[in-house]
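Changelog entry: the Heavy metal translocating P-type ATPase record was regenerated in this release. Current contents:
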Amino acid sequence: MNRSALTTPLRSSTGAVASRLEPALLTVTAAALTAGGAAWLTGDEGLADLLWGLGTLLAVPPAVGWVVAALRRGQAGVDLIAVLALGGTLAVHEYLAGVLIALMLATGRTLEAAARRRASHDLSALLEHAPRSARRRTATGVSTVPLSEVATGDLLVVGPGEVVPVDGRVEGAEAELDESVLTGESLSVERPTGDAVRSGVVNAGGAFELRATATEQDSTYAGIVRLARQAGAGSAPVVRLADRYAAWFLPLTLAAAGTAWLLSGSAVRAVAVLVVATPCPLLLAAPVAIVSGLSRASRLGVVMRDGGALENLGRARTLLLDKTGTLTRGRPRVVDVLAAPGWQSTEVLRLAASLDQYSPHVLAEAIVGSAHERKLVLSVPSDVTEEPGRGASGIVDGHRLSVGRFDVPGARPPWARAVDNRALLDGAAVAWLAVEGCPVGAVLLRDPLRHDAARTLRHLRTAGIERLLMLTGDRAEPAREVGAILGLDDVRAGLDPAGKVAVVQAERARAVTVMVGDGVNDAPALAAADIGVAMGARGSTASSEAADIVLTADRVDRLADAAFVAVRARRIAVQSALGGMAMSLAAMAAAAFGLLAPALGALLQEAIDVAVILNALRALRVDRTARPALTPAAEELIHRFASEHDDLQDVLETVRGAADHLSDGPGPQALAAVEGAHRLLTDRLLPHEYAEEHELYPALAPTLGGPESTATMSRAHTEIERLSRRIATHLRLAHAEGGLSPGQLDDLRCCLYGLHTVLRLHFTQEEENYFSLAQ
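Regenerated structure tokens:
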């Protein structure tokens, strides 16, 4: 079944019969061959022929059914040769040859069925998410009505956590919405009065009123379901690899058999030609290679719906990726903590996390998680309240705190304006911390890139992908920044589900296209692509069901590994099929000249089958070129240093904060900030860099091709150490002079900002090039 399963129910009865028929036929033919062999060994040749003939006869009806089914689809399948060979062996009483052909045919069909198992691409998740009713406000109050009764202009009430039932506009209080179901963006957005709201999004704040601007059928979410159905129906079924060669192999076989009969006058020769031409290399080699590829991919956490998905992935030349959850982590993370004068960033984060411990908000979870990563000791809050859309407030350590939005009356202080500027430049959300009503700090949050994203895209290009595009519902500015960092060929921002489908269809006209996504909003685009890939570890059920490939691990680099597996498996499948056909052609020539009897030809054909199957099983082996093989010790070191990178984020922030303090002049606070940064450098950062240089890099060098592969990263270590020594020299001069001098400020500031930049780049390079190698 292809992706048209999105529009039609499973033909369960037919599928169930087929799933039972092929294994049953394999069992019967194997039993007939074995029992007949036993009878022949005991000298009862009549019984042996009877059993072999019965096994051959039982294979004829299903074989004819398969041929008829193929002809109805407009495919002149190579199974027709097997049917003719079965009939020929019965006609000339070559029963052993017949049962051997029946066994080969049953084996091929069973293997092919295993390689191309179909799964239902239903829309259960989409339908479960869709609301069935709405709360309509009238002059007499609020009543619940079926969604089909909602008309344009009705005033609806949407409660906290409810799905917006139809497209409309916000009335009254502003709405805080989780629009990830449509845009994929994990951050909630605020819609003021009069703003348009699309159906399918979730109310992440307090109750609000919505003026309906469309009916159920005309609303956005209903359109998503229709788009997925239309895209699925328009996707062509994958043609079996063997049938691509049938166009010339089938008539060639019939011509050779007919010519042998005409020239020799012997029907046995014609049957012998058909027997050795029975296309088991085509029926077996390709499915075995594909099944082997599927098995290998599954070990990598890549589940494919059928062999057609693997085959198409091996031919793909264009890759389209959603941004959120695919190229980015899909959840906001703390990227910086800024403090007001007199406050420390670690204390700002600790207090904010203490208050947010009991909040289910996605930003609160990120703040608390960041505090735990930095091993901060959180206090127990009391009298905690949370106002949807504004944040939480409560008492921590005897002080009244609030975290979230903070509207300062009048002009903001300089440090707060700097926070606003940083948030704008970085495309980050801001959670303000206020103590006793006074803002003292801010936490900046953003959905960061995956560490493995750049490496994955490079590997995909190596695997044959020629064009990489990103599709996102996000704003153009952050989308273009991601595209520039990753070296994408094109970026399409501000797309709704219909826009994504349109881009996918346009790219499909150029080349075999892969679409990767993780949300319900991606399901139509996944179904429209030649190969849809869903991030199944945390993605929506709907995107997984609309996809051909599901990544069970939350790692997009697995797709690059799967692409290598697909290319290799497809190449081996073609090699096996063509090699088997070449040997079959040689055997056909021998049979046409009377050098092979049908039974001997059947045995020879079995030998050819074994050869091509053994070759096809090479697809199970690991391709070392796809991913370097790490030793267990090296992988353990990678995990250790990756964890240390997370722990050292506060060191980077302190270094930058010290440089910022120098802008206020060479006072005691500036000197204290530089001293604090230097202590962290000496106690934590430099030992980490030394351990990387002397433990991690030597462990990685054999895998990466020698010490030269890590030379540039070692050079970064040298620069980090040089800048740290320079900062230490400035501190010695300051202590000798009784404080920082104005002449030191420029160079010291350059050292601190430069060190911060080098460290960020160095950490990113290590995470991308080395840490992404770990499983």
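The longest strand covers residues 438-446.
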